[in-house]
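Researcher: Let's walk through a ligand-bound prediction step by step. First, I give you the protein sequence. Second, the SMILES string for zinc ion. Third, you return the three-dimensional complex as structure tokens. Ready?
Model: Ready.
Researcher: Here are steps one and two:
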Amino acid sequence: MKDLARIVTFLFALAPSALFVVAAQAQTAPKPTADERIQRLVSSISEERLQSIVVKLASFGTRNTLSDTTSPTRGIGAARQWIFDELKRSSPKLQVSFDTYQIAPQGRIPRTVELRNVIAILPGRTDRRIYITGHYDSVNLGPGVSAALATAAPATPEFDGNANAPGADDDASGVALTMELARVFANSGINFDATMVFACWAGEEQGLIGSSADAQKLAAEKAVVEAMLSNDIVGGIRGGDGVIDAATVRVYSVGPDDSMSRALARYIQWAAGVYVPSQRVRLMAREDRFGRGSDHSSFTTQGYPAVVFRESKENLARQHSADDTPDGVNAAYLTQNTRINGGAAASLALAPPAPKVIGDRGQPLIARDPSGYDASLRWADSPAAVAYRVYWRDASSIDWQHDQIVANVTHFVLQGVSIDDFVFGVAAIGPDGHESLISAYVSPERPVPPVKFGQ
Ligand SMILES: [Zn+2]
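Model: Step three, the predicted complex:
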């Protein structure tokens, strides 16, 4: 908090007039570091609880979306009721509900099925939403159809919905992470600005059905979703090739390079460095692994920023089979990944929303004035921001290289920094120093119309 306080002091010491035009070589301000409240939240994550949730979810035998819904002990009906009850028990502050849909036969859904996501909402001061998610359904594709061959798997495999599919790593690990963060966020005593949503999806294995239904509904309602963190297969450390990696996790994000999904991935890497320095986030500049997918794509399809966390070393032979059992999940590793999600989401939920850097017609609010060779940056005011931080980098660089805090203004000029040679972005800073995602000024594509030829 010391550094956060220093930034705020630094800001108020600057006269607004001095901030309007500042030479590019001006000193870089100190970066925010840890907030003690978030450190406490992160350290209250329980490894034992994560482990016990994985074991419990695997004990339902299968959680296939097409499995039995009447047994109190086996199948997806028993599993979703247990998740619902457990979330409710975690805190009276959580608004827990089934998000229910009747799904018509389509793709890998052979008959009409009632699908239920389990959602826990922790209301914040505003309606803007941050999602932490995993999928609780599981699948057994039958002998010989391992995930290693997933890209070659038929679109409508004839599998038995009631066959054993413990789905411990895929994806009880992500659901345990989501449920544990619901508990620690709700019990943290922190009054978050953003509304936190903890979502356990169904139908992922049939084609992201549950998350897609929810994301479609959110877009139709014009809900503001600032970030969606999907966690799918996040508990294993030993790859099928025998290589062990317990020190890193992969975060995939869809491009282009300055998409808000990629800004979210960079933010997560920054938060991991602050709150979980013993773990390293590897940024994967692609939507997901080759030929494979997860629920984050349901959100990016609707224009919402989203990423997916994946363990660094997967055992593909155990996925989508009866062998995906709890002994393949390392609770200490899963705890580290839960901490990274918690640190990043809590920082974002305490920060103001990212400033908008595009105009009504979709044009980036960037120009070369006043000299014709300067970077003139404009943005829309972000509610509750007390200052902004401008970022820039050489256009050949993949990550931000320079930054500078500016006062509570919506226009800033970097003299003599060419908008043709550099990429620019801006983030909003809240009263206690928390910073938003960085909105980048992206040069729009310039499609060339087809040439019309004469006779
Ligand atoms: Zn999965």
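Researcher: And what stands out?
Model: Residues 37-350 form a domain with the Aminopeptidase fold (CATH 3.40.630.10). The CA atoms of residues 374 and 416 lie 5 Å apart.
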